[in-house]
Amino acid sequence: MDVPSLGHNIGSPTSPCEGGMIKNLSLEAIQLCERDGSKSQDSGIAEMEELPVPQNIKINNITCDSFKICWDMDPKSRDRITHYFIDLNKKENKNSNKFKHKDVPTKLVAKAVPLPMTVRGHWFLSPRTEYTVAVQTASKQSDGDYAVSEWSQTMEFCTADYSTVHLTQLLEKAEVIAGRMLTFSVFYRNQHKEYFDQAREAQGNRMLPSVKDNSGSHGSPISGKLEGIVFSCNTEFNTGKPAQDSPYGQYRFQAAAEALFNPDTNLYFGDFYCMYTAYHYVILVLAPRGSAGDHFCKERLPALDVADNRFLTCRREDDGRLAFRHAQDVILEVIYTEPVDLVLGTLAEISGHQLMSLSTVNAKKDPSCKTCNISVGR
């Protein structure tokens, strides 16, 4: 069962606040505050026979914005318990963004429903995030005060990635702004000269897949997990060719589109995001059918029809040749999951500028953008 009224962060009536204690609390007027780890000496809490401390807490069915929680309960005390107080906090992270506002502890109040109980809410749960949780049992008295147990043992858990349901929601939002389709003929990858020297001298003349960085949606199931090589395919509207500027390096490898994308390749939607700018990015994955990357994506990402989607298509024309098109109004980041031999294309220095401000390496998604966010943790 879902926790019934978690629209706000609610302080536990047993939690001592900074500079004083909460007095004469009711469920309708609970404030947010820190707890000291055990029972409060709050005079607003009624004295009565001790309530049982939750034991053997179990957390399961974890998603990106919900979890189920249950614990052992003394049957004799069950009738006296009217509420549960849940203290939920993000686990301390020494590498957290120091410019982000401090995360406020979340105190949840729920009626004593049968266990297990589902705790759900994207306003206080984010995907791929470690949390601590502790529980009290409580009994609401006739005067509005509470009798409470001591806090349970503190448990830790980590929320999950976006599911295919959430990714499909992102996909549908991306389709709205993708724009018309433009023809293209090559995939290209920009890097520094040293990158390609390494590929030639130490990697058998091949570019090798590497683990995707943490750019994009925080809940993306491919960040830090999927191995691949990132290519571009966007072209300039007026020339039909790749732009000469790049944030990634002055050397460009480019290969005919059909070398990486053909009827034997599966295509998956990976993410949709922006970086506090007007530009929006769509991450797609190209995986040769039956490859390790293909198996990874099949379990986690929405598959796209290679010949009919709003982002990247490969269609066989009447004359038998393959024709390729990309969406005009989004920037595509195409991850190819297998090694790529440099003999499949050409390598040359480009004449444009290196626009570092456009780099998406480990770029954080704008959580306030209504175009590319969905109603789960960002």
TrEMBL record:
GO cellular component assignments: cytoplasm
InterPro entries: FN3_dom, FN3_sf, Ig-like_fold, PHYHIP/PHYHIPL, PHYIP/PHIPL_C
UniProt superkingdom: Eukaryota
Domain Fibronectin type-III, first and last residues per copy: 53-162
One Pfam family linked to the record: PHYHIP_C
Gene3D superfamilies: Immunoglobulins
PANTHER family the UniProt entry points to: PHYTANOYL-COA HYDROXYLASE-INTERACTING PROTEIN-LIKE (PTHR15698:SF8), PROTEIN CBG15099 (PTHR15698)
Protein family membership: Belongs to the PHYHIP family.
Function field: May play a role in the development of the central system.
Listed name of the protein: Fibronectin type-III domain-containing protein
Origin species: Synaphobranchus kaupii
